[in-house]
Amino acid sequence: MISAKMVKDLREKTGAGMMDCKKTLTEANGDMEKAIELLREKGLASAAKKAGRIAAEGIVATYISEDSKVGVALEVNCETDFVAVNESFVEFSNNVAKQIANSDVADVEALLDSKYMSEEKTVRETLTELIAKIGENMNIRRFEKVSVNNGTINSYIHAGGKIGVLVALNCEKENNEVLAPLAKDLAMQVAAVNPLFLDETSVDEEALNKEREIYRVQALNEGKPEKIVEKMVEGRVKKYLKEVCLVDQIWVKNGDYTISKLLAEKSKEVGSPITISKFVRFEKGEGIEKKEENFAEEVQKQMQKK
Q1: Residues 71 and 16 placed together within one structural domain of the fold
Q2: Residue ranges of region Involved in Mg(2+) ion dislocation from EF-Tu (predicted)?
Q3: Radius of gyration (C-alpha) of the chain in whole angstroms
Q4: Higher confidence at residue 71 or residue 133?
Q5: What pLDDT is recorded for position 279?
Q6: Residue 19 belongs to domain spanning
Q7: Which helix (H) or strand (E) holds 223?
């Protein structure tokens, strides 16, 4: 009898998929060492050796539903930029983004345990097979799903997946001839300028207080009188907000417009208020500490192993 614990233990030892572990344990009559050997022979256990390697390359993929009401941004990582453009890797990433849009998975773990494109294998098992096939560690790092009832969602991908952006617009009058290109322009704005917040109401109070303290110390270090320091601080806070809040930023395509002015003009054009309900910006590998390898040393290490 193959227990769930045995399958779990084999999976942890090899990194192979759950179904592969179960089938192999059955084939090995419950012999753990024999099962590991069989998985290695099939090339499925090789993923475990790669799991510790840093995956900071990869792509950000986006998917927009046909009615433009649902959008997904997804980051899938690998070790090298060569694999990031591999056809199988890109296809897997795009398929998973589409799958998220058509499902109700709430996090990466649930996604990994869901069936891949309605097939027998899970996303986790498919990823493990891809790792074994290509020979690099890979992982699904994060995703975000956005939806609207009235309005549209559009996306922008920069530099072949280095940056991926979603922008969701709300508008009662669904004039897609205006809304779709507007959402695309705004997505390009988010990619280029990297706003931290949508507007002042969404600014984190803790972050704002931290900025205030920094400006206060700067002003005092500049030798400004105590009585005018607070006015200087608030002035610098206002400038900071214009830089980090999307609706207050200068539009990169036309410096005569702020984003809020652009939205107001387009609202008049369609005859209904247009608002940004949400934006998502993923940059490949942000926050991942990538190990810097000396290429000559790496080649030397490989030669010494032979």
Answers
A1: no
A2: 80-83
A3: 25
A4: 71
A5: 98
A6: 4-50
A7: none
What kind and span of H or E run contains 82?
Answer: helix 81-84
User: From residue 211, how far is each of 242, 244, 271 by CA, in Å?
Assistant: 14, 12, 39
Return the SS3 of 145: strand
pLDDT single digits (tens) 92-115 = 999 999 999 999 999 999 999 999
| Predicted pLDDT of residue 302 | 47
Q: What is the CATH number of the domain that holds 75?
A: 3.30.479.20
Asked if residue 127 and residue 88 are part of one domain, the reply reads: yes
**Four-CA torsion 49, 51, 54, 59, nearest 10 degrees:** 120
Structural domain contains residue 226: no
Tell which of 128, 147, 166 closes a domain: 147
The answer to whether 37 touches 25, Cβ cutoff 8 Å, is no
Residue 106 in domain: yes
**Residues 141 and 65 both lie in one domain:** yes
**Domain contains 229:** no
Domain shared by 61 and 142, yes or no: yes
What interhelical angle do 226-244 and 205-221 show, nearest 10? 130
Q: 229 with 221: CB under 8 angstroms?
A: no
Residue 304's pLDDT is: 55
Same domain, 122 and 79: yes
Instruction: State the number of CA atoms in the 13 A half-sphere of 181 facing the CB.
Output: 6
When pLDDT is averaged across residues 221-248 and rounded to a whole number, the result is: 91
Mean pLDDT value across residues 274-288? 95
Higher pLDDT, 174 or 186: 186
Q: How far is CA 154 from CA 140, 182, 247, 264, in A?
A: 22, 9, 17, 19
> For the chain, how many structural domains are there in total?
2
Q: How far is CA 26 from CA 1, 30, 115, in A?
A: 8, 6, 22
- Is 158 inside a domain boundary? no
Q: Is the pLDDT of residue 288 over 90?
A: no
